[in-house]
Amino acid sequence: MSAYLLLKFFHVLGATVLIGTGAGIAFFMLLASRSGDPRLLAGTARLVVIADWVFTAPAVLLQFATGIALMEVTGYSYASPWFLAALALFLFIGACWLPVVVIQYRLRRVADAMVVGAPAVEFQQWMRRWISLGIPAFSAILLLLWLMVAKPLPVI
Predict the structure, then answer these.
(1) What pTM did the predictor assign?
(2) Mean pLDDT, rounded, for 38-47
(3) What are the contacts of 115-123 at 24+ separation with CB within 8 A?
């Protein structure tokens, strides 16, 4: 297998993990939030934090490393409109994701407190913030995937 195909395989694998983990985390966290069950919320929030570190963080690093390597192998220009758009989306997603990670830790802490009787108001406030960052970040991931596949902008 050529270096290009190997890099492309790992780049696509990273994108798949990011999209799958992002959708899965959102699905389970939203369902747990709607349940109102403090124990379910606490357990789900703990798993979401773990999933982000086990799957999302390594996939982000894999995406970045293989993306740069693919730029080198293909000879695409770092000044091209396609790369600049991809980089802007990647940075935007990261700017959304980093606060989301912090919020997830807060959601976990608040959910743990709810198990012993704390009110759910603070949890719902943090969930709204989590959602307000998650929707644009996930939309940008899908747009970035389309940009990678369609290459509608010049690459050279």
Answers:
(1) 0.93
(2) 97
(3) 115/38, 115/39, 115/42, 120/36, 120/38, 123/33, 123/41
**Which of 61, 140, 45 has the alpha carbon at shortest distance from 96?**
140
The two tokens of residue 148 are 């990678």
Query: CB-based contacts of 23: which residues, under 8 Å, 6+ apart?
Result: 138
What is the 8-class DSSP label of residue 52?
A: I
The tokens describing 106, both together, are: 């807060």
The single residue listed with the structure tokens 């807060």 is 106
18, 54 in Cβ contact below 8 A? no
Q: Answer whether residue 1 shows pLDDT above 90.
A: no
Q: How far apart are CA 126 and CA 122, in angstroms?
A: 6
